[in-house]
Amino acid sequence: MKLAQKITEKPVVQKAETFESLNEKHNLLTKELRDTEMELQKELKVLSHAKSLNKSESDDLDAFMAALSKTGKGEVSAKEKISKLKQKIIALKQDLGKVEKLIEIAR
């Protein structure tokens, strides 16, 4: 049954990349990288603000709860989000490097 499905499936046709399409990819990757870095900076600022509130007003329960609500589900989820953003930035930089190499070849 699975073999029959594989045979009937159409093969995926890959489109050749041109200089213009590579430039479009480069622009999209650059924009996405910039947006992701801005989001990472925003999350880092929120996390540092929450930590400073916890240190300066350690006795005030309301301040602590407000800081937790600002970071989402707490400090752990904020750290997870920051880690995922950093991983995404690394992957985007790698993809950007690959596209830049292809652009140099296509010139």
Average residue pLDDT: 80
Task: Please write the string of helix (H) and strand (E) elements.
Answer: HHHH
Major sheet description: none
Radius of gyration computed on alpha carbons: 22 Å
What is the tally of beta strands?
0
Unreliable spans are none
Shape: elongated
Global structural class: mainly alpha
Number of domains: 1
Q: Could you tell me how far the N terminus lies from the C terminus, measured between alpha carbons in angstroms?
A: 47 Å
Annotation field: number of helices? 4
User: How much helicity do the residues have?
Assistant: over 70%
Strand content: under 5%
Description:
- With 107 residues, the protein is an all-alpha fold.
- The chain has one domain.
- It has four helices and no strands.
- The chain starts with a helix and ends with a helix.
Structural features:
107 residues, elongated, 0% strand, mainly alpha
Q: Brief description of this entry?
A:
The chain has 107 residues and is mainly alpha-helical. The chain has helices at residues 2-8, 19-56, 61-70, 75-106.
Helices and strands in order, then pairings?
Elements: H1 2-8, H2 19-56, H3 61-70, H4 75-106
Helix pairs in contact: 2-3, 2-4
